[in-house]
Write a structure and sequence with these properties.
Radius of gyration: 13 Å
Largest sheet: 7 strands, antiparallel
Strand content: 25-35%
Distance between the termini: 8 Å
CATH class: Mainly Beta
Number of strands: 7
Number of domains: 1
Length: 125
């Protein structure tokens, strides 16, 4: 199974946004949209601002595959659902720390229960 290199992890972790393009059922990518990304150990995580109702998230749930780009890294990825409460607490803390310069109006929804329900780990393919 492919893994992230240290360089890829660092570049994506320090990028302000990640562009995500989940694959539709017919294998074509949705248009890429910018979202926030955080790192926990050797893994990268994203969440939908709108929780499970987010359009990109629903597409990702259907195919579990897509493409991301951030910090000069372009990779095809698999989306893996994450629901472990301890992991989600660390991801909440990572979002708060990385994006603290933004108002609570943006950060609070990313650490809300609906957003936690849309936590995905990005696994390189």
């Amino acid at each position: 199974m492919p893994t992230w290199t240290d360089d890829e992890l660092s570049r994506i972790e320090h990028a302000d946004e990640l562009h995500i393009a989940p694959l539709r059922g017919d294998g074509t990518p949705r248009p890429a949209i910018p979202i926030w990304v955080v790192r926990d150990g050797d893994s990268l995580y994203v969440r939908s601002y709108r929780g499970p109702q987010g359009a990109w998230f629903r597409t990702a749930q259907g195919s579990h595959e897509g493409h991301i780009s951030a910090g000069g890294v372009d990779r095809d990825v698999t989306f893996v659902d994450e629901s472990d409460p301890a992991l989600n607490e660390r991801i909440d803390a990572a979002y708060r720390a990385k994006y603290r310069r933004y108002s609570a109006a943006y950060v609070d929804p990313m650490v809300s229960a609906p957003a936690r329900d849309s936590t995905l780990r990005l696994v390189p393919r």
